[in-house]
Write a structure and sequence with these properties.
This protein is 42% helix and 17% strand. With 603 residues, it is an alpha/beta fold. Helix 7 links the parallel strand 14 and strand 15.
């Protein structure tokens, strides 16, 4: 996996700036605890922190090829063995067993079109000494992050904003657009919260040359006619999943699966088990199973379904029990925020995910997860609710923001300046303008194609970012088999009627893996990642925010509607909603961000 950082400036001798380049690289230590490296030339600095997964001894970076090109790379290319054989047939000689060297030598053979041959999750920077050009590349779905900051004569870049912010040339200002981005549940392509910073869009590459910066899109979802009948489609989905999981099991370090008892994670675990014994891990809260109450998001607890699947496939299973009390620790909130570099809306779910990954990292280095199956196959409840589908906005917002918003405690004057409803409406129109359509589709099929596209490009990126940041904060590599672009392309172009052919959500996936899973898991309705139901957790949030308001010196206080805060603090805890808790968590997280990051708001 790893973390990368770097700096290109065509008017500056960067060999004099080693200390700054090292500081940028060191911010990525959590992503790469096993090794570090820095390569300097007159106008370029490439830094690397390594999490050793493939070729433990030989895969050190930055990696050079005869002085022609140098790469700093994060991620995994799952078809690297086939590409290596092809390159060897063309005369290339390899010094290592790593996929990094395959990407590097693939560039020497095919140029930037090497990206068209890669299957995997990756973000890398490659310096071409012959052309005096830096190439920044991000994978098709945006599984691995990559940020950049334009300079008058070059760029700064890194796996996370903190790498860029470690350079004194980067400004820590956040304008209205950046603040809006932190308060909404829609991922804006290229927006990176900090003013002047961008996130390279999935499926894109960026060239940095003395004459300037240019961006190329090398992949996007396309509309293609789906001609396979239903049995063929189901069989193809199964064949793709089998190939994907088998490729993603390659590792020189301990590997496991994340198991929730839902169909997605259960499918990955069952397919992995076909290749040998597999370790699986599930998260639970102390007392959660005994005291579980259905709520607006979850109809049942994960535990019984996790046990059914683990017993069915006989995985080497471990439940990770979390103490709800630790979720209220302000030090944990700050740790999680530093993993993200920005405030969080889903505070306890992010904190518990960090705690889960921290516990797993003591036993394993690589984990396979079920992310993106809901976006691909249509698993969320709001895919199937006419009120949300036809709401005229992002469907998840139509569901989540019915009564409360995560920013409702902000001062009315600030909210008027931000105009978040207008911002969201603009984002929605921009997203719809990108949707690729097939001619001749009826209104229902066109609308559901839009819904699927919105999820894959505006909702999934946030989930992938969450998974990446919380896992890499503890040096755990998480692979996401459902994000294989071949599967995404294939299922995206199946009709909605086919995706729901049995009258349920995720019909194609359910049919493709029916023989692998116990009946209880196959029948189970989608249940999101668990959140604590301990009322003591929300009371702790209320006490913490109330204390900041009473103290009066916290940087968040001038931004708050103190009357709205007081009304919320007086309302019964037992009658609160998920969004009420999100509002509290957002304000507390925002305060930590303003305090610890030295953010200068320009709103």
């Amino acid at each position: 996996m790893c973390g990368i950082a770097g700096w290109v400036d065509f008017e500056r001798d960067l060999t004099n700036d080693r200390a700054v380049a090292e500081a940028m690289t060191e911010t990525m230590a959590c992503r790469g605890p096993d090794d570090k490296g820095l390569w300097l030339d007159r106008h370029v600095a490439l830094g690397h922190r390594r999490l050793a997964v493939i070729d433990i001894e030989g895969g050190r970076q930055p990696m050079s090829a005869e002085g022609l090109a140098v790469i700093t790379y994060s991620g995994e290319v799952y078809n690297f063995q086939e590409l290596r054989a092809e390159l060897e047939a063309k005369g290339h000689t390899f010094r290592t067993r790593s996929d990094t060297e395959v990407v590097l030598r693939g560039y020497l053979e095919w140029g930037e079109d090497v990206v068209l041959r890669l299957n995997g999750m990756y973000a890398f920077a490659l310096w071409d000494a012959r052309r005096q050009q830096l190439l920044l590349v991000r994978d098709r779905l945006g599984i691995k992050p990559l940020f950049y900051y334009r300079l008058p004569n070059g760029v700064l870049f890194g796996s996370e904003p903190k790498a860029i912010l470690a350079n004194p040339l980067a400004d820590r200002a956040v304008d209205a657009d950046g603040l809006r981005e932190t308060l909404t549940m829609v991922k804006t392509p290229e927006q990176a919260v900090f003013k002047g910073m961008n996130e390279l869009r999935p499926g894109h590459l960026l060239r940095v040359r003395p004459e300037g910066v240019s961006v190329r899109r090398y992949w996007a979802l396309e509309a293609r006619e789906h001609t396979d009948d239903l049995p063929t489609t189901i069989r193809t989905v199964r064949e793709l999943l089998e190939d994907i999981v088998s490729r993603q099991l390659v590792s020189d370090v301990p590997l496991c699966t994340l198991l929730s008892g839902g169909i997605d994670s259960s499918t990955i675990t069952a397919l992995a088990r076909q290749h040998g014994q597999i370790r699986s891990f599930a998260v639970d809260f102390t007392g959660y199973a005994e005291n579980f109450q259905p709520d607006e998001m979850r109809v049942d607890a994960d535990g019984p379904f996790v046990r059914d699947l683990a017993e069915h496939v006989r995985s080497d299973h471990t439940d990770i029990m979390l103490d709800t009390a630790e979720l209220t620790d302000p030090r944990l909130r700050e740790t999680v925020l530093r993993g993200w570099d920005r405030p969080q809306l889903f505070g306890d779910m992010n904190s518990s995910l960090y705690m889960l990954f921290r516990a797993i990292r003591e036993r394993s280095t690589v984990a396979l997860s079920g992310e993106s199956a809901d976006e691909i196959f249509g698993g969320y409840s709001w895919f199937h609710n006419p009120l949300t589908v036809d709401s005229g906005t992002f469907p998840w917002l139509a569901l989540f923001l019915r009564e409360h918003t995560p920013y409702e405690l902000l001062h009315p004057d600030l909210l008027a300046k931000l105009d978040i409803p207008g911002f969201t409406a603009d984002s929605y129109r921009s997203a719809l303008a990108e949707v690729p359509y097939l001619p001749g589709q009826d209104d229902r099929e066109r609308r559901m194609r839009e819904i699927c596209y919105l999820h894959l490009t505006r909702f999934l990126p946030e989930l992938l970012d969450r998974k990446d940041r919380m896992s890499m904060a503890v040096g755990l590599e998480v692979r996401v088999p459902f994000c294989d672009h071949r599967l995404v392309e294939y299922v995206f172009n199946t009709s909605w009627a086919m995706k729901t052919f049995d009258g349920r959500e995720k019909s194609l996936l359910r049919a493709a893996v029916a023989d692998l899973l116990p009946e209880s898991v196959l029948r189970r309705v989608k249940s999101p990642y668990p959140a604590t139901q301990d009322v003591g957790y929300e009371q702790a949030l209320r006490d913490a925010l109330g204390g900041l308001v009473r103290d009066g010196d916290a940087p968040i206080v001038p931004l708050l509607d103190t009357q709205a805060v007081e009304r919320m603090l007086r309302s019964p805890v037992e009658k609160s909603t998920t969004m009420t808790r999100m509002a509290l968590e957002t304000m507390l997280s925002l305060n930590v961000w303003l305090t610890s990051y030295g953010v200068r708001l320009e709103v």
